[in-house]
Amino acid sequence: MLRTVTATRYVTPLREGGSLPAIIEADDAGLYVVKFRGAGQGAKALIAELISGELARAVGLRVPEVVLVELDAALGRNEPDSEIRELIKASAGLNLALDYLPGSVTFDPLAGPFPEGALASVIVGFDAFITNVDRTPKNPNMLCWHKDLWLIDHGASLYFHHSWEDWETRSQSRFNPIKDHVLLPWASALTTVEARLRAALTREVVERTVAAIPEAWLTGAESPFPTADAHRAAYVTWLLKRLDALPAFLEEAVRARAQLV
């Protein structure tokens, strides 16, 4: 079950993010990087963050704590930037955030520290599973913190949900973009990944993760499903079908790596 905190102070925007995330302080005195529901990709990016982050944690990968953030539109009333004021106003209600990791630095594929083959392989395999197109040398979306790799920014994963047409068939995709994964050169143990993903991502884990999606993110004019429960059931189905396709997309990752080394 995800914790819910209430934003008490807007600290600073993180302008390197296309959706203008920000650091906020919450009522538990913690600092969080909040992703706003009112940003360009709306609730779908938050759903992708939630599902991908929590399933990565289930696999044993390091992800900052994911929390739900209750946001009052009045939080931005003293913000001089009109774009930020409008974003906060459009995001009133439940949003999503990741625990802020002070002192962390972006992973540099040229400078390291470089991951061991087993860890790199699990990250590559997991990103192929969630169809994450946004873990490239240009934009690694990983932080080095206390000598460990932490995964962040999964809003571009699960991109099938931006168009639900033929979604069950598309769950079997080999995921060609894996060839651009920043950790592919180090992923020397890809043949061991299938067993780890299958053991960790059981139906129970998948259903529990999807159940944590707030109902408000699943309903409305944009939803292709009649109810939030039907919407959740579709996510569960896609994820389980994606697990069925593990051999195909891991084979694609092995083939892509063979072109590099």
Automatic annotation (TrEMBL):
Domain HipA-like kinase per the UniProt entry, residue ranges: 13-229
Provenance organism: Pyxidicoccus parkwayensis
Listed GO MF terms: transaminase activity
Record keywords: Aminotransferase, Transferase
A Pfam family of this chain: HipA_2
Protein name (Swiss-Prot/TrEMBL): Aminotransferase class I and II
Superkingdom: Bacteria
